[in-house]
Amino acid sequence: MNANSVLAAVVEGSGKGVVAHAGLHALGTFADRLGLGDSLSARIPVTGERVPLHDRGKVLVQAMLMLAGGGEACADIEHLRAQPELFGAVPSDSTLYRTFRHDLDRATLEGLWAAMAETRVQVWRRSSATTGTATVVLDIDSSLHEVHSENKADTAPTYKGGFGFHPIYCFADATGECLAVKLRPGNAGANNIADHVTVLDAAIAGLPDEIAVGHRPGDDPSLVRRPVQVRVDSAGCTEFVWRCRQRNVGFTVVARTNARVHAAISRVAADDQAWAPAIGQDGDERPGAAVADLTGLVDLADWPEGTRLIVRREPLHPGAQQSLFPSTGYRYWGHYTDAEGDPVTLDAHMRAHARVEKHLCRVKDSGGDRFPFCDIDANRAWLAVVCFADTLVRWFQLLCLTGALAVAEPKTLRWTLWHAPARLVHRARRRIVRILDGWPTTDTILAAHRRIAHLT
Question: What is the average per-residue pLDDT within 120-127?
Fold first, then answer.
């Protein structure tokens, strides 16, 4: 029996004609086809006496490729720099550092978000997930990012006893892409209304114009062409819902426990006729769970007109979070919404807000848990580019991939797609990349290139 894990081989340097990131090359080709580098470059002013050797839009796109491939610091760009025949002229880590440190101030960063919004119009026009007339659902949530250094500006202790940042995000539910993010100190409140409004306005600004129209502060409701709804945790049980109404944006927010909610639940707790079986995301009934519409049993005078209170109960289990109503048999959870429809369907829709946790994990796994700079503006730009990289990957999955890879997590994409090995061949003045024989995603990469070629 042979217990060796590899075959014996003579290992030498000076290898030529091979590349290690054929999948990342496909992702970069996709970005170039969308004109992303040009859009970003147009928003970055030239501040020196001479035009920089490396176009700053191209630098940022290559940084996105590095982040998608698992990079966590500027030095990781060297892995792309080592393959000039595949990625062209790649900046050094010091050039990338200077780009973040000196070229991306707050005003420039706002322009980069606008450039991403321009490109988003192209992607959403081509995707079945975003076309049509269905409500555009936005998910707002904050997350703690641990930073093990006190030398980084605006870091602070967190409410969980850690230290770092506490950014707040807004994601598009249909695609999972980040539409806006605000980097905040670790001690920033999770229920800060102003921060929620800030990311909501930024997210609306990032939507295609035909969707955003009518949803800006003070817009006439008659301007709305497509409804927008925001889902948020209990921070929404505040003045935030009125800010949503000012923007003609629907809301679905987690309910907090209070005397009025407690009294409403107590009136139906023992009335099984008031409860309907709850369903999961797949449409099947959830065993033991039930939903009730308590709108007529609670005073909602201080809420926007049309607000409803939907409550779900489910069998109590060990480790269950705080309940809206004390019970030895059930855990009660509810939400307020101004949406019409069946309470059971609305409950399942609100539970889908949990998908935001997957989006946050994906961002953190793509460089979002590392802040390489001491300067807050540079770290703010870093987090924005991390979100841009995640968005670029989501666009690629939407338009170029099918099956399991269309929803795969970063680790899976790296192992199976981004780092695919290939042989580089020059023939008839053309550069040909031949994927390694037997590589499991060869057909997927070839199909992705065919789809990219058809993008117009």
Answer: 94
Could you tell me if 165 and 183 are in contact, meaning their C-beta atoms sit under 8 angstroms apart? yes
Distance CA 191, CA 343 (A): 26
pLDDT at 321: 67
Rounded-to-integer distance, Cα 437 and Cα 424, Å: 13
Residue 304 and residue 321: Cα distance in Å, rounded?
A: 28
- Token readout for 122 is 């192209």
Does residue 251 register a pLDDT over 80?
A: yes
What is the helix (H) or strand (E) element at residue 253, kind and residue range?
Answer: strand 250-254
Of 278, 275, 264, nearest to 349 by C-alpha is 278
Residue 114, CA distances (Å) to 41, 388, 439 in order: 12, 11, 38
- Asked if 382 and 372 count as a contact pair (C-beta separation under 8 A), the reply is yes
Assess whether pLDDT exceeds 70 at residue 237: no
Instruction: List the structure tokens of 198.
Output: 């800030």
Residue 259 and residue 313: Cα distance in Å, rounded? 18
Q: Shortest CA distance to 269 belongs to which of 313, 224, 237, 304?
A: 313
